[in-house]
Amino acid sequence: MTTIHTPEHPSGLPVGDSWVDVEQTTAVTFPFTGERVADAPVGTSELARQAVSHAFQLRERVGSLPSHVRRTALAEAHRVVAERRVEFERLLVLETGKPLVDCRVEVDRTLLTLATAAEEVARLHGETVPLDLLPSGEGLIGFWVRKPIGVVVGIAGYNYPLLLATHKLAPALAAGCPVIIKPAPQTPLATLWLVHIVREALAAAGAPRGAVQLVTGGVDVGVALTTDRRVGAVSFTGSAAVGHAIARDAAPTKVLLELGSNSALVVAADANVEAAANAVVRGGYYASGQACISVQRVVVVEEARAAFLEALSARMAEVVVGDPRDETTRVSALIDARSTERVMSWVETARRAGATVVHGGSVRDGIIEPTVLLDVPDGELAWDEEVFGPVVVVRSVPDLDAAIEVVNRSRYGLHASVFTEGLGSAFTAIDRIETGGVVVNEVPGFRSDVMPYGGVKDSGVGREGPRFAIEELTVTRMAIIRPSASTPTATTPAPAIGEGAAP
Fold it and tell me: Which of 292, 369, 385, 464 is catalytic?
């Protein structure tokens, strides 16, 4: 039996300045074997409202924390996570079922996000404004500063639970916002430990532990958190359907959405097909395909099709399937049986619609084989929607213009990539592909955690990356000062009247 206990944090949930006992727990299971990993606390909607109340009461105190306190707390959290990284990696493998190599990358990226957020505290500033561009502004001094948006609710997905929670938590703290994290019900363990580490770092720096809270639970908890009018911003990572519902229900609260995609990789006529095939193998099956910017659609210019498919076929044997605890494994079990059944149903309906299965297409020992489908028609879920499994679909088109048109027809727009040896083709793709990021000669799954990251269309709104998330979680406050309150004369120009203001 694979039973572990997350080191060094109390039982219950971190709500308020302490940990609150809960009545219900649920088993977190290892997706590869189904064994119990640990029992996780389950929160309630009442506990969620309690967390919002505490955060709301703290918002002014957290917003006025000195920069050095916020930076020190984040830096200390980084130090402790780095010190315990091997334990975090093992825990992530067990609760997500994700291959060890991908969990190591997740911890690396978590550390970078914490470190970068700590650095960005020193860069949170405003600017002066030349108010005298109008005669009425003569003698006035103007500048703006950034102020925290208030209580932040961060909701993370199950595929990268530690990293996604960090992308909510760290920028919120850096901005001076109290934050409440809701992890995915399947994967709360690493996030619980992270929150404990950050709370202790806050306390050591002289800040309240309750600046960071965590509530687990289902839809009722999510609704309680996202529809509370005391919340300043909701940051959600997950499916488009859930994200759209949150945006509707939370209005007018600000909502940041990092949603799904069916990321495309374009192989131009002049592409290095060996490099493109390598990218599909590396970028299509990491995290067992459970990544929103993994390669799903491969759009190949007809001239390169035969050579590309030959190169891809030669590389597929490199994708090792098996136990995610093994150093060599690249594809393992999905998060649960329901996900496996859904992905396989999409593969089967695509096959019945005329697609050809050229590799994989079966489940062995509970694991979907790395799968390649050719010529999946429009209208099929495996082409139109996000598979979120180890499935890549390939289609050919006459030229680069047609490839870009195919990419843009999707309702999603997170990341795409193009393989080409031509500078003109590269810049054409960057200019015309309608996604949040365009990657040239690398996988669309490339993401540096310091860059602005987010999508367009149904892939979301807002940007992550500490610098950009901090901007999203702060609001500008304009200061307009007349140094001397002298009485205006009859010839003094009337001040500019804002839209909607009384004359």
Answer: 292
